[in-house]
Specification:
alpha+beta, 5 helices, single chain, Alpha-Beta Plaits, elongated, 2 domains, 4-stranded antiparallel β-sheet
Length: 158
């Protein structure tokens, strides 16, 4: 006897089982705590420095390397990486998942303050950017159509 024939033979039992599973599922769903926008801590900080009008190689040599030297021996760092572009330096610090971010931020701030002595005078003040998932958009919407910009402008100016 296969499962279909057994289910047809004991259909009342199957209905009761389905009802029980539906009620148990609904009960579990409604008892779960839900948040509209839960706070997610991402243990990543980015130190950015602007050095206007300087080639990427010079930014790396004068700014990025100085920052990396100070940030290299921080505790609980999973990964340290950097990017140098024209007039811009970014050092990304990825911490271990269990690190206290407030304490880590203060340690990074202290290291940057020490590194500022080795930066060129024309370089702008370094800034620390903490990655915060709540600041990222939930959804991006693009709308396209066969309208020219002039026709849209004329409609709104009437």
């Amino acid at each position: 006897m296969n499962i279909t024939q057994t289910a047809l033979k004991f259909r009342t039992t199957v209905y009761v089982l389905i009802a029980f599973l539906a009620i148990a599922g609904w009960s579990a769903f409604t008892s779960l705590p839900l948040e509209a926008a839960p706070e997610v801590k991402v243990p990543i900080m980015i130190v950015t420095t602007v050095f206007p009008g300087v080639a990427p190689e010079d930014v790396e040599r004068l700014v990025t390397n100085a920052m990396e030297r100070e940030l290299t021996d921080l505790k609980n760092v999973k990964k340290l990486s950097s990017t140098s572009a024209e007039s811009f330096s970014a050092v990304t610090i990825e911490f271990e998942a269990d690190v206290d971010l407030d304490s880590a931020y203060q340690k990074v701030r202290d290291r940057i303050d020490r590194a500022k002595a080795n930066l060129p005078a024309d370089a702008e003040e370094p800034s620390i950017v903490e990655i915060n998932v709540a600041e990222f958009p939930m959804m991006l919407v693009n709308i396209a159509g066969n309208y020219h910009l002039d026709s849209i402008h004329h409609r709104h100016s009437d």
